[in-house]
Design goal:
Largest sheet: 2 strands, antiparallel
Mean pLDDT: 76
Strand order of the largest sheet: 1-2
Low-confidence stretches: 34-47, 151-159
């Protein structure tokens, strides 16, 4: 049976110490059969071999009166999705569904149509140009797609 008490203690302490205002944790075994959004560590609540953990800690924001974090709270996670996207993409590569040097616009046509950011004009409006190269799967986790190599400096030149 999974032991979650140390995890709860760690996150409760981190929230109390102000490390972060709140967090939501979701963990599931690979069967994915248990669909409840509750902590299901009790043997009576789960099927043998299934584990599904979901819990919210802390508040949605800093400051007095901030609402409690919920397991379905919507929050900005910015580039934190790069890890999940990379894992999912590499699983697709492993299964032979796509190669690292394939153009992703065949799967996500809207990405292929996006223009490339060249910079900003004096009025702070974006300066865009048409895409000259395809977006390869291998460049997606680097967050360099859609930005001109000139803006990215030596990093952009290498990708």
């Amino acid at each position: 049976m999974p032991q979650v008490d140390p995890l709860d203690a760690y996150f409760n302490k981190a929230v109390a110490d102000g490390v972060f205002p709140g967090a939501v944790l979701h963990a599931r075994d690979r069967s994915g059969k248990c669909l409840s959004l509750q902590v299901t560590c009790d043997a009576s609540d789960r099927l043998p071999g299934n584990f599904n953990y979901s819990k919210a800690y802390g508040k949605l924001a800093l400051g007095d009166g901030a609402p409690d974090m919920q397991t379905d709270s919507i929050m900005q996670i910015a580039a934190c999705t790069a890890l999940m996207t990379s894992i999912a993409a590499l699983q697709c590569v492993e299964r032979g569904l796509i190669r690292l040097d394939d153009d992703v616009s065949r799967l996500l046509p809207e990405i292929g149509k996006q223009e490339v950011l060249r910079g900003f004009d004096d009025a702070h409006r974006p300066k865009l140009r048409s895409r000259k190269r395809r977006i390869r799967l291998r460049c997606v986790p680097h967050c360099g797609c859609g930005r001109d190599p000139v803006l990215l400096g030596s990093y952009g030149a290498a990708h």
